[in-house]
Amino acid sequence: MNTKKFLAVAALASAIVLFCAFDLHQYLSLDALRQSQAQLSALHAQSPWTVALGFFVVYVAATALSFPGATILTLAGGAIFGLGWGLLLVSFASTIGATLAFLAARFLLRDWVQARFATRLAAIDKGVQRDGAFYLFGLRLIPVVPFFVINLAMGLTTMRARTFYWVSQLGMLAGTAVYVNAGTQLAQIQSLKDVVSPGLLGSFVLLGLFPLIARKMMDAVQRRKVYARWAASKPKSFDRNLIVIGGGAGGLVSAYIAAAVKAKVTLVEAHKMGGDCLNYGCVPSKALIRSAKLAHQMQHAKRYGLDSGLCKADEGYRLFSFKEITQRIQAVIAAIEPHDSIERYTALGVEVLQGYAKIINPWTVEITLNADHAPPRVVRLTTRSIVIAAGARPFVPPLPGLDAVGYVTSDTLWERFAQLDEIPKRLVVLGGGPIGCELAQSFARLGSAVTQVEMAPRLMTREDEDVSELVTASLRADGVQVLTAHKALRCDGTDPDKGNGNGKTKVLVVEHAGTELRIEFDQLLCAVGRSARLSGYGLEELGIPTHKTVETNEYLQTIYPNIFAAGDVAGPYQFTHTAAHQAWYAAVNALFGDFKKFTVDYSVIPWATFTDPEVARVGLNEQEAKEHGIAYELTHYGMNDLDRAIADSETQGFVKVLTVPGKDKILGVTIVGTHAGDLLAEYVLAMKHGLGLNKILGTIHTYPTLSEANKYAAGEWKRAHQPLVLLEWVRKFHNWRRH
User: Fold this and answer.
1) Which CATH fold topology does 240-393+532-592 show?
2) Strand (E) or helix (H) holding 154
3) What order of strands is seen across the sheet that includes strand 666-673?
4) Dihedral of CA 615/620/624/630: which sign?
């Protein structure tokens, strides 16, 4: 604590001690005020300005220090000065005192609260920045809410002091007038209940609804303003209730929900139904991972007591055909494809149009239909609401020479590699995130000489260091050359497949610790992240703000209340399951938002990286808890202790659970191990519904299964919280019973 804060705390503590030591509260009671009313009135008649100034200072001090008795002082203002002057003095004194309390809380407490509850406070601050004035106004209009609590709580937010002052000045005026007026009739008041009757309180509650009405009015004004230039374009009736742009997870779920509630909905997809997940991401990569894992197990058959002789590369035996692996991947996609097909969604009641959509105005979408002939057919449809679910594409870094040597991304590698007869002999994977790690390990297990280049000091930087270390060790054990803290500078050579060279060697030049290193390769895979698709469908023309993603509010609305965004294009997560999660909110708010809107819930978001061992997480991990100053208790359980993991020879990994210190409330879980993504589901359920580790410990888990790891992790927490004193008495009790 710095000197200024120490002095402020000392002064505050001294004031409280003096207030209690001299029993000053006795002067802030109704009886004391009634007994001294005549004396105070006489004193005011003799020295009106002195008494007014003294009263003003006392009121400001009492309010600033959050002392009890503000109500009595307000009554005194009416009793001594009358309604006019009393209201003037009390109104300004109460607001100034409240603002001082607000500033004191900000100066003394905000840093401390920020350090411990940064994540929660950030969400509150966002709401305060948007609706703070209305919210505060509503609280000020309802006198049953303790004003001193409001003063201190608002000081912990980012609300501006001047906003707090003027809203408080206006908001407290009605309540202040009631109490000051009551003070002018002090002789008739027997208790504070006489000042505010139930009927009057009801009136104040109705007044408290005014901010909600005002918010609706402001929304209407803002809506009118944002739609002003499109007023002439709004149709009197609409062709559709909802148009969805994009046929990935977000778009499919949005369209499905709309059809399920019998809305007329059109889904527009320019390329393949199912989006990135089915065609380029989750499905093909997991099919590849499964083949690679089986190849790895066959090559290490001796671990399972089997003869691995036929699997040795030095005996010249080809363990697999890369062509057949790529064919299997395509077969897996084809098997899942009907789930996301045009036929299925048409049968559900969705109109599916294949083409490129462009938003012409807030209610009109122009669709250029896919066609082999020219010119292509163009359709214009009007709609009440629009959901943008355009997804994301791989980010390609602007490396000099990259286009000349050629590259693949997580989107293009499936088609490009399907044309190869053999697996790439030398593969460079650029990127150390989940996609890069999954693909690097898989291709290494299938026989490629893989070099993985990551600019950061370690792989998978969003995870804890021990997780990164375990994944890195696993990749290296599978033959991946992991180069962290290596920055890609440029590419040299040419791509003979493009007919622009004579087969010259392709090289990636990287820099590490001031030294350049040249890495030769046959194929280069860019896996450095994905960026939202933000251009080509009308965002620019409509002026919808974007910053890496489409900017939305908590209801997933853009600046146009009838245009929503969901999935990768909206962020903040780029997972198929969060896209589907957001799609529910986007569709329901789009269709029924005039009656009830739902705030999208990001409180419990799980994710997994499907390396071997897998990495799965929900909630906080250690590095995030430390960054935000959140106190936690760590429970660790090693997979090498689990019977089923031992039987399966899959003992790599652990379960880490972060809990509130001294309690079993779960803050976050990280699981590293085989089927970690599946094991995580129990913790996701527990966190979603507020269940602690004691509930998991008390749940029967089938033996022998991997799910027992969750129970044993809970058991580790329980052992660390044994009631040792009670157990000692129990031991003595059992000793006594033996004699």
Assistant:
1) FAD/NAD(P)-binding domain (3.50.50)
2) helix 147-155
3) 606-609, 614-619, 666-673, 654-659, 633-638
4) negative
pLDDT computed for residue 180 by the predictor: 78
| Greater pLDDT, 215 or 708 | 708
Map tokens 């270390």 to a residue: 469
| pLDDT at 120 exceeding the cut of 50 | yes
The CATH code for residues 402-530 is: 3.50.50.60
Query: Which of 267-281, 501-515, 561-575 is least confident?
Result: 501-515
- The domain spans of the chain are 3-215, 240-393+532-592, 402-530, 613-724
Res. 324: pLDDT tops 60: yes
Give the lowest-confidence range in 62-71, 198-207, 451-460: 198-207
pLDDT at 102: 85
More confident residue, 212 or 734: 734
What is the rounded average pLDDT for all residues in the chain?
85
Q: Which amino acid is at 723?
A: P
Peptide bond into 375 cis (omega under 30): yes
- Give the DSSP letter of residue 557: B
Give the span between the Cα atoms of 105 and 149, in whole angstroms: 11
- Enclosing H/E stretch for 136: helix 118-141
Nearest to residue 652, comparing CAs of 439, 472, 463, 438? 472
Domains 240-393+532-592 and 402-530 share a fold: yes
Nearest residue to 437 via CA among 410, 414, 460: 460
Task: Give the global pTM.
Answer: 0.77
Residue type, 195: V
The first and second tokens of residue 276, run together, are 């990135």
Contacts of 238 (CB under 8 A, 6+ apart): 363, 382, 383, 384
Neighbour-count burial of 543, counting CB atoms closer than 10 A to its CB (0-12 exposed, 13-18 middle, 19+ buried)? exposed
Q: Which two tokens stand for residue 647?
A: 């039987």
Lowest mean pLDDT of 491-495, 641-645, 714-718, name the range: 491-495
Output the pLDDT for position 139. 67
How far apart are alpha carbons 56 and 66 in whole angstroms? 15
Of 342 and 55, the structure prediction assigns the larger pLDDT to 342
CB neighbourhood size of 646 (10 A): 13
The token pair at 330 is: 């395509």
User: Which pLDDT does position 432 carry in this prediction?
Assistant: 96
pLDDT at residue 273 is higher than 90? yes
Looking at beta carbons, which pairs linking 411-415 to residues 24 or more positions away fall under 8 Å? 411/276, 411/280, 412/280, 413/439, 413/525, 414/279, 414/280, 414/284, 414/326, 414/329, 414/330
655 bridge partner residues: 637, 671
Q: Which residue has the tokens 């709004």?
A: 234
CATH number 3.30.390.30 is the correct assignment for the domain at 613-724: yes
Structure tokens at 2: 């710095």
Query: Is the bond preceding 572 in cis, omega lying within 30 degrees of 0?
Result: yes
- Per-residue burial over 86-106, b if 16 or more Cβ lie within 10 Å, else e, is bbbbbbebbbbbbbbbbebbb
**What is the CA angle 696-697-699, rounded to 5?**
65
pLDDT score for 316: 40
- Bridge partner list, 265: 242
